[in-house]
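Consider the tokenized backbone below.
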């Protein structure tokens, strides 16, 4: 195990067995450099070897500090179970508050294994990598945010294990749902917060997490937690439209302001913005034999209402629409889905999402379903499919403008299609 603060490894081949981690920095690190490093990491030396159990997942490279760079590396990390055998993992094995793997670059690498996981991440570039069998995730399993991530010009393929996500935000969690009194940057909750996530003892310091106004006066606004104690919370700036007694708040981890540009995704599950996605741009990507590209607002595990807000899907193309997960989702699609709406919260979970100039071939379609508000589908082309655009009955404010259909049996479908505004 190579570990330290502010160091570099270059021009080295590493073959290791029965490992926990191969290379790692520390949370205090301000400069890690890995260049031309080859890693072949296998959990067992032989069929008779029993690996010692650990609460920490296996990882070839573990990034915790800032200003890291991993370039021109070739990494194979064999899986030893679901969630293990991670090629690269970022973040600590627990809550890190204002610390984390910030301002790093991972480029021009070959990555093979189970998962590439971004935790507590800010300001990372992930570009020109070839990724095989690796789910790329920007998660918040133990922390409050993963944001300002630039993922571009990668080829990601052959993701069949686990839940098959070829890219996902994932991770349930939350601190509060309900009413609150807002005055400037101060927020007073109407009830005690209840902290929930994957950890046995969820963290209670929620700095960096998002405060969403889901419904009522001021709906559609998001602010970031700067401090919290009991029912007294602080956010980063005042509200443009001050919330009132009708406003419904949700305080959950934040995954937003991320860019996915000019990537190729083949043979796997979905490219999905799963819960708590805001201000994400998915542009110029190509997909083949995947479940599609979509944003998904929901309440994972009942731990917190996570909305899907103001993301844009621009100039993407699905060349082959029959994805690996077709038995679950049906044909591949672009669009929005929401889940778990119930008597606790039946209101909108998706707002202001845009789908523009996307091209869909071979039995793929566009889907706007669930409790969605103000969706624009514009200038998209659907070709050789049974369905063009499907609009669900609970979708409101849907605008369909200048879309083109070629050899599509039913261009407009769904119980809510009659309520959509259609501009030829």
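A designed sequence for it:
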């Amino acid at each position: 195990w190579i570990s330290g603060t502010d160091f570099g490894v270059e021009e080295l081949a590493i073959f290791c067995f029965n490992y926990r981690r191969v290379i790692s920095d520390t949370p205090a690190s301000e400069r890690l450099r890995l260049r031309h490093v080859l890693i072949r990491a296998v959990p067992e030396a032989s069929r008779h070897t029993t690996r010692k159990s650990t609460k920490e997942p296996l990882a070839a490279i573990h990034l915790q500090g800032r200003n890291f760079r991993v370039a021109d590396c070739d990494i194979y990390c064999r899986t030893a179970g679901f969630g293990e055998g991670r090629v690269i993992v970022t973040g600590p094995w627990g809550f890190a508050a204002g610390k984390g793997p910030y301002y790093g670059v991972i480029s021009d690498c070959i990555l093979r294994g189970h998962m590439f996981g971004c935790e507590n991440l800010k300001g990372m570039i992930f570009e020109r990598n070839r990724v095989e069998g690796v789910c790329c995730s920007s998660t918040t399993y133990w922390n409050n945010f993963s944001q300002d991530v630039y993922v571009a010009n990668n080829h990601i393929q052959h993701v069949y294990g686990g839940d098959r996500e070829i890219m996902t935000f994932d991770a349930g969690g939350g601190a509060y749902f309900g009413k609150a009194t807002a005055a400037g940057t101060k927020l007073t909750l109407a009830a005690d917060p209840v902290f929930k996530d994957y950890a046995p003892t969820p963290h209670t310091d929620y700095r960096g997490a998002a405060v969403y106004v889901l419904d009522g006066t001021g709906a559609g606004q998001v602010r970031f937690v700067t401090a919290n104690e009991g029912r007294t919370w602080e956010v980063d700036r005042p509200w443009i439209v001050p919330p009132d007694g009708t406003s419904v708040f949700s305080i959950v981890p934040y995954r937003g302001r991320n860019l996915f540009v000019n990537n190729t995704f083949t043979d796997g599950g979905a490219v999905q913005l799963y819960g708590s996605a805001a201000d994400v741009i998915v542009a110029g990507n190509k997909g083949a034999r995947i479940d599609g590209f979509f944003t998904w607002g929901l309440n994972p595990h009942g731990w917190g209402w996570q909305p899907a807000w103001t993301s844009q899907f621009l100039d993407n193309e699905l060349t082959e629409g029959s994805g690996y997960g077709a038995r679950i989702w049906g044909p591949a699609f672009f669009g929005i889905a929401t889940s778990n709406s119930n008597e606790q919260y039946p209101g909108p979970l998706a707002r202001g999402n845009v789908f523009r100039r996307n091209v869909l071939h071979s039995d793929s379609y566009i889907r706007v379903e669930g409790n969605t508000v103000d969706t624009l589908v514009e200038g998209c082309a659907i070709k050789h499919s049974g369905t063009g655009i499907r609009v669900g009955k609970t979708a409101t404010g849907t605008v369909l403008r200048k879309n083109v259909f070629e050899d599509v049996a039913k261009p407009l479908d769904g119980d809510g299609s009659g309520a959509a505004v259609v501009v030829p």
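Residues 326-329 form the longest helix (4 residues).
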